[in-house]
Structures are given as structure tokens and as C-alpha cells.
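Q: Here's a chain of 611 amino acids. Please give me its 3D structure as C-alpha cells.
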Amino acid sequence: MTASPFELTRRQAIAGLGGVSALALGGCATVPRPPVGEVAGLLDQVAYNLLEHEPERATSLGVDTGPHAALRGRLEDQSAGGQAAYAETLRADLARVRTVARAGLSPDTVTSLEVVESAYASALDGFALPYGDVAVGSWRNAPYVVIQNVGTYLDMPRFLDSTQPLENPADGEAYIARLAALPAALDGELERMRSARGMGVIPPAFLLDKAIAAMETTLADVSKSDGSLVAPLTRDAAKVGAGFAPRGRALATGPVRAALERQLAELKLERTTAKSDAGMWAQPHGEEWYAWALRASTTTSLTADEIHQQGLDELAGLHARMDPILRRIGYTSGSVGERMQALAGDPRYKFAAGDPGRKEIMDFLHERVAWIKAQMPRAFGKLVDPNLEIRRLPPAEEPGGPGAYGGAGSKDGKIPGRMWINLGSTDLHRKYDLADLAYHETIPGHVWEGEFSNRLPLIRSILAFNAFSEGWALYAQQLADELGAYDGFEVGRLGYLQSLAFRACRLVVDTGLHHKHWTREQGRAFFVERNGSKPEEVASEVDRYCSWPGQACGYKIGHSEIVRQRSRAQSELGARYDLKSFNDAVVQGGNAPLDVMARNVGRYIAGARGG
């Protein structure tokens, strides 16, 4: 295939940035080797170099203060040039980290260096691809810069409302500065959307339909005098000053609105030539893009075929555990999937429709979080008490969003860890599967794990790995079951096992869509027919896999590896094995690639042996 002018320009601009290429490392020998005592300072410098390109993360972590206070008023440069500059910073810092001699360093410091190497090398391989959005040390790699669940048009209203501080007039100025920078960020994305279109990269029609509807919702909101971009300034006027809301309104209804209209026009233009093919196999360089996305998401070298087969094998094993439970509660006829579909229709396990059901769901989640928090001394030697809140997903995100997601708060604890729950329809959730979702997103899942990562050096709080993050959250669900979450409520255990089976299905469906040429309808049918998943739930799920290729594979790959490492520790330690110590070793080792996590477990085993 002949490369497009855009592809040549981008590849030339970031030539040699692939993390494993000889060209990228050619100049490493000339970089001074920092003394061992300066490694901590080097890692902090690397962290702030990254935050210069993603200042929003500095705010999320609560480190946009003191000499770094200017970050609070800036946004990431979303243009092609800005992304190339970001990649160049990664290349330079990767070279510096690779020169550090490991001898004599503490295991924790070696782990930090290994984590930076893995994250940066993977990201550079992604930047070297001709299109897409690269998540540096994060989870949302996307081939389409703006789509139904990707883009500043979705991220920024939520960020400004929930994360941007508004405590004093200086914060008000920073807020206004970010609003003023928003049109440039949107236009930077637009530039990359147009360039990708010039290469023949057009998102599937069904994703564009959702994105257009979501963009129109955002536009309608921004056009209002009290829209979500202005509301925080009005809400906190007593702290920041009354003059900021009018300034914000002028920006939101003027240049921000105009930039959103330009993006909407581009989405509508793309829709005129869009096809229905769901997978990356149908896009230029799609197979190459997907192979990288799988490596980035799983932190392994597993192929699409290997992942697909693992999903089928694990699904069969989980269904074998579900079958006797279904029989005991009276569901004896049909496949496991058919019986789970029947269970989903049981009115005893449904929440009420509308706002009454939304309140039921929120009350249920708070009760389950309180219960699991009380169980943590039984599973961990080191305890934390996260600042935590549960919030509804913004309505504009609900049609294209997952059932829920969550994450840690800031390093200083001022911004809480959050579970965002999709309440667009209460029929997305059941009383037998919602508790499991709470454990996954909050305690001992994402929010709990994030508390430990936030206690590590700054670069470790920034860099996260999908397979570890999501694998740990699934392991958190397993711990909840082992701690008695479903004792006396066997249907709840069935919901837990179905959620694991759901993640096994993800391995099958994601690789099916992007590697085996499955249609969107085939992906949805596999979930419903084989696992008994709710049609309303999987409709959004499958579309998410189309816009975040590979991401869905991190969950079960990560969980299975953590469980394998636990079995290894039990086998090698025998009577010396201790559940609390194992859990502490994994979570205190921080968010890391799976091979680095395995080395942390090896050090725990050696220490428990006394060797």
C-alpha cells in the first residue's frame, strides 16, 4: 500500500520512536549516566516532563501546585505537532532511564525504572503508527480521535465539573484559561480527524451515529447560558468571585461552541462515506494497529488467536461452575446462557424504572461499599481509607458509555476516588450483579488499588497498565466472594461468576471483531446467547470494543495472571503462604506490567522463605 502524505509526514516527524528499534537507541551511549543517588530525582523529572504534555493529569493528581501551578490553566496539545512533541519527550526520557545502572538500587526503584521503560516503549510504538490516539501509561488507546466515547467534547465537561479546583480567584483564572484553550484543543483533534480521513480511516457508521448524537447533546448544553461548562463557576461564585461566570459564558457560547460545530461537521462528513465493518481489519494498517493495541492492553506478546482461544477455554470452565448453581435455584433446562437470560427476566432481581430505581441503585451501592470496607482487615495487612464517592455518569456519556467505571483520586486525597455508574436505564443492572460491579470499581478494586499507587513516586501514580488495573479489579471481585459477599445469596455468586464469564467473552468478541472479521451483530449475539448477558448492556459494550480495540482483553488476561501468581506462591511457600501478605505484595508493588508484577511476587516468595 502506498503511504499517504500524512503518513509520511507523521512517520518522519517521529522517526525511530518505536520503543524497541535500534534507531531509537542509537544515541543512548552519549547520555550521561546519573548517579544512583539521583535516580529518584530523575524519576520525578520524567514525571513532570510527561505532565507538561498532559497538564490535566497534574490536576487529577493534585500536583499542579507550587512551581507547577501553571499546569492548572493548560490543556494537552491535541494537534499532530503537539503529539509529535509529546513522543519526542518520551523518546528522550526513555533513553535516560535506560542508562541507569540497576546494581545497588532497591527493588522498588528497579520496579519504577522497569515500569517507565515498559510504558514509554509501548507508547512510542503507538505514536509511530500513522493515526489514532495513544494513551501514555493509561488504558484508552483509540484509532479514532473523536468518536462516541472518545474526545475532548466528552472529557472536558466532566473534568471541569468534577476535578478542576475552584477554591479562590486564582482557580477561577485557571478555569477560564482552560476554557480559552479548549477551542484549540478541539481544533487539534479536528486536524487529526481530517488527516486520518485523508488516509481512508473512517469509523464505522454505527459509531458515527452515536458520536453525532453525543456531540449534538454537548453542543445543546454548551449553547445554554447555564451549561455544564459554566455551571461550576456559578456554583462556586462565592469562592472564586462573581465575575468569572460571565467570562466563562462568553467563551463557552462563542469560540467553544464554534469549535464543536466544526467537529460535528467533520463527523457528519465522515458519515456520508462510512461503512458498517466493525473491526480494525477493515481500516488501513488495521492489523498492525490492532497487534500493537493488544500488546499495550495485555502487556504480553499473546497473539489474537491465542487470546481468542483462551477466552473460549475460560468461558467453558466458568460455565461449568455456574451450571450447578443454576440447577439448585431451579433453572435446569437449556444452556447456561439461555438460563441466565431467563434469570435476567426475573422481576425479583430488577430495579424499578426511572428515578425511583436510580435511588435504589445508589442506596444499594453505598450499602455494599460499607460492607466490603469492613472486611478489608481480613484480606490485607496494610489498610487505607479511601476518600470515595459514587456518582452518576453524565447523561451525554450514558448512551455510549459502559455500565460503570471508576478510579483513584488525587495524591493529596482532596479529589476523591470515584465510581461512575451509568443510570441511563435502570435495566442495565440487576440486584444479583450490581454488588460485584461495586467491588470492581471501588473497594478492593480500582479505588483501593489507586490509593497504593498514589503513595508511590509521582511517575508510578501517573503510569497505569490496563492488564494490571483491570486484572486487579477482577481479583477484587474474587476476594469479595472469598470474604463471604454471597454467603446466603447464591444468586449473587452466580452474578459474580457471570461477570468473570463476561470478561472471558470479551477476549473472544474483541479478537473476533478485529481479527476474525466478525460483525457487530455477531459480537452482540455471542454475549447474549453464550453468556446470557443483557442485550441492553452488550449493545454499548460491543460498540466500545470497536472504538477501543484491545482494551477489553486486559481484564481477564490480567486476572488470570494474578491468580496464577497466587497459586505459584501457595505452591512454593506451603505453610508459609499468607493471603494478606500476598495481597500486600501485589498491591503495594503498584500498577505494573504483568511480568514486572510477577517479579514482585517472586521477591515476596523469597522474603517469606527467609532467603
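Q: Can you summarize the key feature?
A: Residues 1-33 have pLDDT under 50 and may be disordered.
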